[in-house]
Design goal:
This protein has 448 residues and is an alpha+beta fold. The protein has ten helices and 18 strands. The protein folds into two domains: 198 residues, Rossmann fold; 151 residues, abc- transporter (atp binding component) like domain (Coagulation Factor XIII, Chain A, domain 1, Distorted Sandwich).
Length: 448
Amino acid sequence: MCSDVTIRVEDLSKAYRIYPTPSDRLKQAVMPRLRRLAAPLLRALGRSTEARPYFHEFWALRQLSFEVARGETVGIIGRNGSGKSTLLQLVCGTLTPTHGEVEVHGRVAALLELGSGFNPEYTGRQNVFLNASVLGLAQEETQARFADILAFADIGEFIDQPVKTYSSGMAMRLAFAVIAHVDADVLIIDEALAVGDAYFQQKCFRWLRGFQKKGTVLFCGHDTAALVGLCSRAIWLDRGNTRMIGSAEEVAKAYTTFIAAESMGLGEGAIRTADVAPGQAELTGPDTADMEGKAGYGSGLGRITHIALRRADGKDAPWYEGGEEAVLDLRVEALADLTDVIAGFFLKDRLGQAVAGDNSCDVALLQPQAMAQGETGLFHFRFVMPALAPGDYALGCAFASGTQDNQIQHHWIHEALMVKIQPRHHTGTMLNIQSNEKALVRGQGGAA
């Protein structure tokens, strides 16, 4: 195993035995032994000595292989029942694989579920020492770090109350505080950061960012924004099988596409890369593009054929500073009779996170629009370009029917155009606030 590889998973599979009734479990324990004892007699009678199974196998994970390098953060994504938690438990060593191997170098700290490893009858203080010892700390080391653990958890006098009296958020605080102070080499988190108040979540993410600089992380969850923001690579599991391994952005995009198409009742064959004929349109200019071959998905009942982005004054826009007016035109075509048509757009940063956007849902509520089969139309948006951090952003767009909360996507395009943002003044944040007034007034000290 390479010294730079912290986790190696090779041909990993896990099967569970499912028994139709409790009595079948007993039969499985007894009958094979009886049949082995009776084997000489059965052979003399010409009968089979093979015992029939009283269970069927459920494969939670099948033939998964990957490596995680030291200092890398890899995300695990998939629907409930896809095998995510099984994989993490196999990596932790709390489950034994049916086939394959898992190798982990270094101390592992895991937060697989709220309060995992805690005894509900013990106090928080007792559980800190218990959990830390399981993770490899001596009692003296835990004692030396106890004040820091207590400060991180911030549960006050409840530290001396039984854990069974804790709320889920308090149990999560204490569990995370322990794993944050055991000098782990590998951190495994299973959707636990979604619990707790906003202040504690921010504290956890700040600590996690620091840990990523030196340690290895396996992060499991449904939140694609957190996946893209935290991870460099991702693994998409579906019903125990490996669906995709790649960059976090590409995996999140594919997973989101699959879930969105499934929620619209589309079969798997309808999930496809957009294949749109370019057509003829009046839209021209440096920021105009036809949508042929653009990656996306949709129902196939409508399509976006062209988009164009310009400054509101009509001038070319090699980049935007933020704060100026821009115009976006989306050319669409109905491939069937459509009601309640809407369109929208969004800007995504280099990690694939949507940072700004708008749609026509509010207008459609006041005046619903319909399109006949073969009809074309133009959605026109005039907006103020947000003063984002400098960089390249992807402009995505969508054409749909329905409302803000319930819609069918006819054509969703992940990256239609690239937009460069270059503000004159940058504050180091994702978005610069446009202040109407900012000044130092001398001699005006004291309370605001």
